[in-house]
Amino acid sequence: MATIQIDAERCQKCGKCVQICPTIFAQHTKGAIPHLLDTTRCIECGHCVAICPSEAISHSSFPSGTIAPIQPEQLPDTAQFMELLRSRRSIREFSKRQVDRALIEQIIEAACFAPSSHNVQSTEYIVVQDPAMRQQIVELTIAQYRQWRKLLGNPIARTLTRLVRGSTGQATLDELREAFTNLINQYGQGSDPILREAPTLLIFHGDRHIGFAGVNANLALQNASLVCETLKLGAFYTGYVVAGSNFNPRLARLLKLPPNHKIYAGLAIGHPRFHYKNWIERKPTQIQWF
Ligand SMILES: Cc1cc2nc3c(=O)[nH]c(=O)nc-3n(C[C@H](O)[C@H](O)[C@H](O)COP(=O)(O)O)c2cc1C
Ligand code: SF4
Ligand code: SF4
């Protein structure tokens, strides 16, 4: 349980800490020092410490060294940030050069700053840089797609799908089967359609019993992918690995995934072989205003 104290001498009695707290940790009456109420529901988000203008709050979860002043001049303006968002692309062509450990650590640090439901910070990370292990992941993923392709060709499964979903369902299955066949064939011809020869795979996993663990992991991934862009690294979302991993216990064992953990996201990372010259507009989206 968090221990929170307010230094009466430092407190300016502004009440901001009480107003921004997502739980009701204290009560504030105008011109008075906040009166601590229930700190047991504190989610350790640090908002109170971050907003206090006079460093009057000491919170057991945030000892010295965990708090730093925001430097507004370091923040990108909207134009700069939009340029970053527009220029980020899924990079699938990499040089053979491995990504330095320090850069991966920086990417994970960026990921950790993503929001998480109830501030659970549930996302954990696995970094795969070992070429043999990386290859095993590719092989196990392909094996999973082989199994799925077989299942999609099963006459009983096809008849059942036709009965339940009609001809549209059948067509979807056929499309999937064709896509899986292409993937397997590409692999058979010596290319790597799963990780695209990226030297690093960053896996985002979490306890499946934690609410929103998947959303939290994917928000973390997006932070990571944006910081990759600033580090001049290329990255793409490894959907095939993520989808395959949830059905292949051998992959979970290989990665020493803790019990009850699930892989929610994966990012293949490397030094890009090419640099893009232009950004391209997205499709017009549908927006409803009320
Ligand atoms: C999936 C998800 C659901 C969330 N739902 C709520 C919510 O319903 N109400 C709320 O006040 N904050 C919500 N949050 C915000 C989190 O509480 C917040 O991200 C966390 O406390 C960390 O604080 P920060 O985002 O200021 O770093 C949600 C965040 C995520 C990722
Ligand atoms: S850390 Fe967050 S939840 Fe806890 S008291 Fe401060 S503002 Fe409230
Ligand atoms: S934010 Fe800081 S200064 Fe303001 S009331 Fe809270 S403890 Fe006091």
Element layout with pairings:
Blueprint: E1 4-6, H1 16-20, E2 26-27, E3 35-36, H2 47-51, E4 57-59, H3 78-87, H4 101-112, E5 124-128, H5 131-153, H6 155-188, E6 200-207, H7 213-230, E7 234-237, H8 239-245, H9 249-254, E8 261-270
Antiparallel strand pairs: 1-4, 2-3, 5-6, 6-8, 7-8
Helix pairs in contact: 4-7, 5-6, 5-8
Description:
By secondary structure, the protein is α+β, with helices and mostly antiparallel strands. It contains nine helices and eight strands. It has helices at 16-20, 47-51, 78-87, 101-112, 131-153, 155-188, 213-230, 239-245, 249-254, and strands at 4-6, 26-27, 35-36, 57-59, 124-128, 200-207, 234-237, 261-270. The chain has a four-stranded antiparallel β-sheet, with helices on both faces. A hairpin with a 7-residue loop joins strand 2 and strand 3 (35-36). It is elongated and about 75 Å long. The two termini are 42 Å apart. The mean pLDDT is 95. It binds flavin mononucleotide and iron/sulfur cluster (2 copies). One iron/sulfur cluster (SF4) binds next to helix 1. One iron/sulfur cluster (SF4) binds at residues 6, 11-17, 34, 51-54, 56-57.
Attribute tags:
binds iron/sulfur cluster; iron-sulfur; 4-stranded antiparallel sheet; Alpha-Beta Plaits; Nitroreductase-like; alpha+beta; binds flavin mononucleotide; 2 domains; plasmid; 8 strands; 290 residues; metal ion binding; two-stranded antiparallel ribbon; NADH Oxidase; elongated
